[in-house]
Amino acid sequence: AQSVTQLDSQVPVFEEAPVELRCNYSSSVSVYLFWYVQYPNQGLQLLLKYLSGSTLVKGINGFEAEFNKSQTSFHLRKPSVHISDTAEYFCAVSRSNDYKLSFGAGTTVTVRA
Amino acid sequence: DAGVIQSPRHEVTEMGQEVTLRCKPISGHNSLFWYRQTMMRGLELLIYFNNNVPIDDSGMPEDRFSAKMPNASFSTLKIQPSEPRDSAVYFCASSLTTFSYEQYFGPGTRLTVT
Fold first, then answer.
1. Which terminus of chain B is more exposed, N or C, with fewer CB under 10 A?
2. Do B42 and A32 touch (CB under 8 A)?
C-alpha cells in the first residue's frame, strides 16, 4: 500500500515570500501524485497533478511541484505567496490506474502581511 | 456549474439518533466518493460508487454506516445509530470517470454527535 508523509504540519510565511511544502511518499509500484488545497470551511480543490511526463508540474494560482522519483518526493512551491493562499494543503498519492487516493495529514499555511 | 452540493452543512444530533447526509454530484460525473475528515485520522475514503453502483465500501467503519446512490444525481450516507465518535466533517466528491484523476469535492457536512 502507498502512504504519504507531509513533513510540516504548520508553515507560517510572510506575504510575497516564497513557500515550499514538503511531501514524501512510499510505494512499491508506480504512482500518481496530487496536491489539493482546502480553504477555510470549504471542500478540497485540486491544485495540480503528476501522472507522467515532465517532472515539473505547474498548477493553478502560481503553484508548481516537482516529482523526484529517486527521493520519492513531490514538493509544492510558490515563489511569492498572497494572503489568500492561507489554507490547508494536502498531498495525495494513488497507484497508477487506481481511483483510491491516500492523503497526507495536511500542512496549514498561514500567510501574514 | 453549481459544483458538488451537500446538505446539510452542519448537523448536531444526540447519540443514538439517525443521521442522513445528502450529496448531489456534478451533472455528468459517473464516480462518487464519500470521505470522512477528522483531526486524528485525516481524510479517509468511506465508499466509492461508479455508475450508481457501490464498488468499494471497505472504508465504511461499521454496520452503523450505510450509503446509497439511487440515481446519478443523488447519494446519501446514513449513520444509525450515531455515536459521539462519528463527529467529523463528511465530504462527498465526484469525478467524470473513475480514472479522470480529478475529484471535485463538496463543501462538506460538519456532524457533531453529543
1. N
2. no
Res A27: pLDDT? 83
Name, in order, each residue with C-beta under 8 angstroms of A54's C-beta and a sequence gap of 6 or more.
Answer: none
Q: For position A25, what pLDDT does the model report?
A: 94
Which of B101, B102, B104, B109 to mutate against chain A (most A CBs within 10 Å)? B101
Task: Please answer whether residues B31 and B105 qualify as being in contact, where contact means their C-beta atoms are separated by less than 8 angstroms.
Answer: no
Give the model's pLDDT for residue B100.
62
CA A47 to chain centre: 8
Are A17 and A80 in contact by the 8 Å Cβ rule? The answer is yes
- Residue B1 has what pLDDT? 63
Question: Is the pLDDT score of B25 beyond 90?
Answer: yes
CB-based burial label for B36 (10 Å; 0-12, 13-18, 19+) = buried
Phi and psi angles of residue A83, each rounded to the nearest 5 degrees, phi first: -55, -35
